[in-house]
Amino acid sequence: MIQQFDSRPIGVFDSGIGGLTVLQALIQKFPSENFLYLGDTARLPYGSKSAPTVRKYSEQNMNFLVSREVKAIVVACNTASTQVSETEFMGRPVYNVIDPGSLLASQKTKNKNVAILGTRATVKSDIYRKKIQALDSEIQVESIACPLFVPLAEEGWHDNDITLQVAQKYLAPLKNKNIDTVVLGCTHYPLLKVTLQKIFGPGVELIDSGVAISQLLQDDFTNGKLLKNNSEKQHDLKVCLTDFGPQFESLATELIKGVTARTIQFETVSVI
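Now predict its structure.
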């Protein structure tokens, strides 16, 4: 008999809370799926770590998700995505946030002026520029490292005067670049979207990688690479953290309650 359903969860990992924006988008797109989120909060941030260290952490995270029997792995961290090039890991399809974000940016820009906002590690890798210009060599790409955006997002300062001042300082070099599309090249950054939209203005497209990656999974559900969960069964949502904190629980609950009525099951784990 041909298998029609796969009730195993979709695994998602990030260094901290940023990947919750990807999880939020995935739950909204696939309300019948089970999800297992891993936040490596004991070792955040990844953006200031060396490439070999980020690769090691990413492998440990993927091994953990495989041990929990996920059917797919979503790398919901731009810095980690720069070090995870494989499309499959131990028999599970792997989805990074950089490829779909780059594709969507190349499709959305009208004047071919794109900005990338990211961590130091992501900007240093230059991966977004390479990916976008491989899709369209005429697109001009400006990359800006915004390391303080992560602690601001973690602190919950998503739309206040301090965040606005920091953002204005970082983004000043883009003022006369005629940018019409901005890739939020860290999964924390969509939490600051209101502030960023104020600076760029309503006519500038902000690319959220969570929305972009959802389409990739939708394509694989459609072509049969991924099997859907049986929608008649209970839908589980588990959040695993390598270092538990009440602030994370509060933010996770706030973000997720807007897209699902499911109760989040929290668990503290080790991935080493």
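The longest strand covers residues 113-118.
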